[in-house]
Amino acid sequence: MLTKSDAFSVSPAPKPVTMNDTTLAEFSYFIENFGSNNSAPAERRCKILLSTSGDQVLSRMYAARGYSLGDSGCSADRTTLAVQIDGQAMGTLSLHMDDGHLAAEEQYPEFISHLRSRGTRICELGKFAIDPAVRSKRVLGAIFHMSWIAAFRARGATDLIIEVNPRHVGFYRQALHFEQVGEERHCARVGAPGVLLHLDNHKMNRLVAELRGRRSTSQRDNSFLSYCFSADEEEIILARFFENEANASHRRCWAPVPALRRRVQIQGGGGAVSTLTGGSSVPACPTLHHGQRPDAFNTP
Questions:
Q1: Which of 54, 150, 246, 265 has the fewest Cβ atoms nearer than 10 Å?
Q2: Per-residue pLDDT tens for 100-130?
Q3: What are the residues facing 66 on neighbouring strands?
Q4: Distances (CA, A) of 94 to 51, 100, 250
Q5: Superfamily for 4-285?
């Protein structure tokens, strides 16, 4: 059961921030005011979008570290998620489906070749940046779960890869359950060392089903999977991915259905119950079961 501080909002017919941005999810969370002994936690509003304009955050964060952003590229196989906090752009994460060239194969060609030889569908995460002011497991858990929904369910990937700075390997392994599959190598694109990490859909599905919604009180539990969206919220988000793709491509591969309305009780303060209502019209999509490779989703 979600708490009031984690309330997830799906409003009817969400309005895009720009012509190219689509709101996928909104929720509130609280942060501690460390500068005051008596002040109450401050409430923040987070919005996660499908975006074409996330590079401004990325450029700022990379420049602060002295890294080069490199070529962002523009591809139908690339998806960018953007994070807004109280209306301000604060984070971004990109997904790139394997189209014959992945950035990681410049440093790790042998591992990419091995995955392809097994018939896998690879999705590469990259260009991740989050403003240091965003001190929230809820926000980080949400954007990475959103990337998994986009990659595994909407795009039909079977395997995720990501190159990270060596000092961040511990975070990805403990908080997000990635596995290291390559030794440290120099990444010429950003002018910094990198390490290749991997996560497959079977492991992700199992862990999300096991851990989401189960908040641990242990200080040693660093997993962010308890902050994933609920199963009902995930279905609404997935429907929005398909609706956005159908609108963007002007294809009519799925017949429109009447308004999708889900009622999901959220326990709030004082026993108050909120209701989620999602979507005005979404494409009718085939059901994707865990481990299924949804070739039907890949339209010509």
A1: 265
A2: 999 999 999 999 999 999 999 999 999 888 8
A3: none
A4: 10, 17, 23
A5: Gcn5-related N-acetyltransferase (GNAT) (3.40.630.30)
